[in-house]
């Protein structure tokens, strides 16, 4: 039995090492959120067993939980580098597949069609607004910047306010609010499914997204010219890495000890 108990320990230690290694590898990934492993013990005993005689038979992986705490904010100076100070996610939609993504990575840029997108052809979603910036609908739309205004003036620049309003400027001095960045919130963000590239998708565990304007209610404020760095603490991860390594070594030693005892018993009987 000790062989299988220690084997479970080895597998769990390997999983712990994998998760920590993944965190360290993404310590410089914009918008990345670290994960940690949770284990639970296993006992062998039925309903009628004497509770004083129930024996533990190892541990099992219970969950790999994500930590959505705020990462450090880094100033970049680019108007389309956006960060959420507080709770919430940017909402993007793939221009090719139509799939919806949620992300904390606000490194956006304009493409040739005037779409504000993340470099993977996923377009930022906004609330439609009127000329004064008032939200006119809760149905999200692509954040697209017209190349010219109604007078034919050429696009000159873009600003994003902390309340999410995206304003396009033109060379005749005209300013037009083209939308308000929508921030998504979830009842259980730990239930979001990781998709890679700092993107997540909603699941039945996370619940459906609710949307709101930045800097209102439970939705965080928007910061232009800023990116959110990974929330990985390298020192903390290195300590965890050493602990997981020692755990792996201890379980391997337990298997070796059990093997020696078994060999001794075999030798005595022969």
UniProtKB/TrEMBL annotation:
GO terms for biological process: bacterial-type flagellum-dependent swarming motility. The keyword Nucleotide-binding does not apply. It comes from the Bacteria. It is found in: Bacterial flagellum basal body. The keyword Metal-binding does not apply. It holds the Pfam family Flg_bb_rod. GO terms for cellular component: bacterial-type flagellum basal body; bacterial-type flagellum hook; cytosol. Residues 83-168 form the Flagellar hook protein FlgE/F/G-like D1 domain. Signal peptide: none annotated. Residues 223-268 form the Flagellar basal-body/hook protein C-terminal domain. Residues 3-33 form the Flagellar basal body rod protein N-terminal domain. Keywords: Bacterial flagellum, Cell projection, Cilium, Flagellum. Belongs to the flagella basal body rod proteins family. A flexible structure which links the flagellar filament to the drive apparatus in the basal body. This is Flagellar hook protein FlgE.
